[in-house]
């Protein structure tokens, strides 16, 4: 199975909506040239993900993440109508992205890590929980997103939540519905988002493995000792 751009875009668009970021997915300009980021050392590599996943292009995902974080307002109702005025996006190097593809399973795996500050990191997790409870169906520019509770929802980092996703396009004949699983984790001043999406239901075992690996790597490379946590 081949991967097209819209599948990768749908993953991050769905992740951003679930996180309460109010992000839609119209056309995007080309992203600026990539460069090493301080957070990149904490990202998953091919050695951390299940067998069969190969590196993919982050491309416009980095641009979408910056726009999403810029639109978020801690404490705002993620279910409220309308979108807040954007603020300056995080400085270059304050976020990092990793994308992997599994050609046989037809699954996209994406990891996003951003230094948002403690308040925003915790609020992103809380906003996802609010959306699950109050507005689990979201209409986006491209279709309809349904948020579901996850059977696997362990405590991770300082705050965390895992969710199931269903995304249906406005033009289902040309683009099949997508299923996904995702986890949001707040760890001190950082927010970690891990998502898997595909035409079929993503393997829960893959989600558990990559989320645990991502959290473990974040803790070990962040310079914050587990003993220092309150």
Give an overview in words.
Keywords: Signal. Helix 1 packs parallel to helix 2. The chain has helices at 5-18, 61-71, 118-134, 204-222, and strands spanning 54-55, 95-102, 107-115, 137-139, 143-149, 159-169, 178-187, 190-198. 27% of the residues lie in helices and 26% in strands. The model is unreliable at 1-37, 82-93 and 226-230 (pLDDT under 50). It has one domain: 3-Layer(aba) Sandwich (Protein Transport Mog1p, Chain A). It has an eight-stranded antiparallel β-sheet with strand order 1-2-3-8-7-6-5-4, sandwiched between helices. The protein is α+β, with helices and mostly antiparallel strands. It starts with a helix and ends in an 8-residue tail after the last helix. It is built from four helices and eight strands. Strand 7 (178-187) and strand 8 form a beta hairpin.
Topology summary:
Blueprint: H1 5-18, E1 54-55, H2 61-71, E2 95-102, E3 107-115, H3 118-134, E4 137-139, E5 143-149, E6 159-169, E7 178-187, E8 190-198, H4 204-222
Antiparallel strand pairs: 1-2, 2-3, 3-8, 4-5, 5-6, 6-7, 7-8
Helix pairs in contact: 1-2
